[in-house]
Amino acid sequence: MQTLFTKRVLIIIIALFSMSLLIGCAGMERARKDRPGYLYYPSALVKADQALDEARAAGKDRECPAEFNAAKDMVDKAYEIYMACRDKDAIAMANDAIGKIKALCPPKPVVEKKPEPKPEPPAPTPPPPPLVVEPVKITLEDIHFDFDEATLTKVALDILDSNIKTLKENQGVNVQIEGHTCAHGSEDYNTALGERRANAVKEYLANQGISADRMTTISYGETRLAMPEIPTPKNKDSKEAKTNRRVHFEVNVK
Using CA atoms, how far apart are residues 195 and 228, in angstroms rounded to an integer? Predict the structure, then answer.
């Protein structure tokens, strides 16, 4: 009799444990191999990874890489937020990322080709207009910096030497030196960093013989990114971040 009672209690315990597993895993899916941490994650996070795989298989990572990488960063961020026990925020961000992934690389509208009009009889040839000499367009190449640095690299010095040669050959040209940063760090810090980068370039140009009255500097910090960028600890050396860490030259003809 006691053995029968013990078996019944054991069956009840096993049933309750099974129900708790089912309830605890509701809305969860098994984690992918490349997502360590937990055996199961919310379905929205797993589906966001699946959406990325489908977009990559469709070639959208090559067709519109900036938008694809931004969406991928959102998915990675959603996992980070989930690991920080912010379940609702992580699921909301994952669903938002899924929407952005599905909207990647929208097809370009097809422009209907209009029928060509019938040619009209040729008009009398007018006299040639007076010769207009177009002004020569001067362009200077941007230089780039390492993360959180305002020191001129070897590559940057080579580019600056080429720009200096152009400035010396065109004495009627002034230049505004614009300092830019990536999106990592606070806005105030990046404004100061952009200023240091612009001043480092101005100082080098002045030492190489470019008159100071031909140069002005300005810092835009992170406010004028050359490429869209979502700052995370993992992407500070991404293509987007490296492109944004730059000094740009705005040329003005006197």
Answer: 21
Q: Which amino acid is at 22?
A: L
Nearest CA among 254, 153, 139 for reference residue 197? 153
pLDDT digits (tens, 9 = 90+) for 194-252: 999 999 999 999 999 999 999 999 999 999 999 999 888 888 889 999 999 999 999 98
Q: Which residues contact 27 (CB under 8 A, 6 or more apart)?
A: 42, 43
Q: Which residues contact 75 (CB under 8 A, 6 or more apart)?
A: 45, 48, 49, 52, 94, 97
Residues paired with 40 in a beta bridge: 30
Closest CA to 247 of 168, 158, 157, 145: 145
- CA angle in degrees (0–180, nearest 5) for 86-89-95: 135
The helix or strand, by DSSP H or E, that contains position 217, with its residue range, turns out to be strand 215-221
Query: What pTM, to 2 d.p., does this model score?
Result: 0.48
Structure tokens given for 202:
């101005």
**Residue 142 near residue 160, CB atoms below 8 Å:** no
CA-to-CA dists, residue 28 to 84, 95, 119, 155, angstroms: 17, 14, 68, 50
Question: What distances in angstroms separate CA 9 from CA 1, 4, 23, 63, 133, one per listed residue?
Answer: 13, 9, 21, 61, 99
